[in-house]
Amino acid sequence: MANVDECVKEVLEQFQFAGIPVFKGGYGNGHINQTYLLEIPETGKKLILQRMNQNVFKKPVEVMENIMGVTSHLRKKIIERGGDPDRETLNVVPAKSGLPYYVDSQGEYWRVYHFIEDATCYDQVASDEDFYQSALAFGNFQCLLADYPAETLHETIPAFHDTKNRFANFKKALDADAMGRAASVQREIEFVLKREADAAILVDMLAKGEIPLRVTHNDTKLNNIMIDNATRQGICVIDLDTVMPGLSVNDFGDSIRFGASTAAEDEIDLDKVSCSMHLFEVYCEGFKKGCQGRLTKSEIEMLPMGAKTMTYECGMRFLTDYLEGDHYFKIHRENHNLDRCRTQFKLVKDMEDKWDTMMKIATK
């Protein structure tokens, strides 16, 4: 790629700005796209400039088509509710071509969003209220998009939460055993194989029409919610690159996997790892309230299965990557992916032990 300053200079000449933006450097701590902050001195307004990662998102035009469709729908709904569409959804700045992106001379795709003022993203759950607000916001996201035709969206990452497909990929990695590691992780392998039937439950329910296809976010962590600095309320769901057709229970489940765990994702001491029933209940209440009755009875009953499935799937992906030589997830120490998979499997087992409690909380 050419010098960043040269690329940015080229790119900034191609968007419809209300003034002349000044490049302020890198922004945030995202791992996928390159993100920069812009400011227009005349107005003091800020903007977010991003170079999209084509290694992860092979079809950036489809990603932007999804984003434009979903944000347009959200904006209309927010206005109908009497909300503030400039703060409660992402807003794209169009290029001079009229497209929601610009392709530079190096073939890189760029986009610009309006900056949401007086709000903050948090990487970790500092309080029950923060977790509740994230649940409320993601539930509200489901509510506002309940009538959006999910089947019209592109799959930005094909088969992303197709757990049956993830299991098939795991079996391929196990059979190949490219790094000769399988013999030393038989316990973890048996854990996955024993739960093959679980991988199919939600996928099969969707195929049978027992749970509906929804517009899903697919990265429902706390740091993808903007929380208002004054009110501490979750106001906007961001990072919409992975918005695509999916299951509401998977969005719910990934939040539980990450946010209701009592330990870090790569904790070595498994005695510290469990699924907090208190945090599970906090999130469950917020998510259902945010959904405002849009969830079906089957979806509500499957919320615990969403949590278990997403945790099982994530652990299986970590183990698959370990067997294949750690080429997908970045590692920072020896056996890092193995540690990660063990943490997820401990969470799965803990959920199984607390299953009756989780069902009572979800359906009460």
Tell me the structural class. alpha+beta
| Major β-sheet annotation | 6 strands, antiparallel
Number of helices, counting only DSSP H or I runs of 4 residues or more: 13
Quote the beta fraction.
Answer: 5-15%
Rounded radius of gyration (Å): 21 Å
The outline comes out as globular
Which regions have little confidence, pLDDT < 50, spanning 5+ residues?
A: none
* Straight-line distance between termini: 54 Å
What are the secondary-structure elements, in order, as H or E? HEEEHHEEEEHHHHEEEEHHHHHH
Would you count the extended β strands for me? 11
Query: What is the average per-residue confidence, as pLDDT, rounded to a whole number?
Result: 95
Query: Helix proportion of residues, in percent?
Result: 40-55%
What order do the helices and strands come in, and which of them pair?
Elements lengths: L3 H9 L9 E5 L7 E7 L4 E7 L8 H22 L3 H4 L3 E2 L8 E2 L5 E6 L4 E2 L7 H17 L18 H14 L9 H9 L1 H12 L6 E3 L8 E4 L5 E4 L6 E3 L1 H12 L17 H15 L5 H5 L1 H22 L11 H18 L1 H9 L1
Antiparallel strand pairs: 1-2, 2-3, 3-6, 4-6, 5-6, 7-9, 8-11, 9-10
Helix pairs in contact: 4-8, 4-9, 5-7, 5-11, 7-11, 8-9, 8-11, 9-13, 11-12
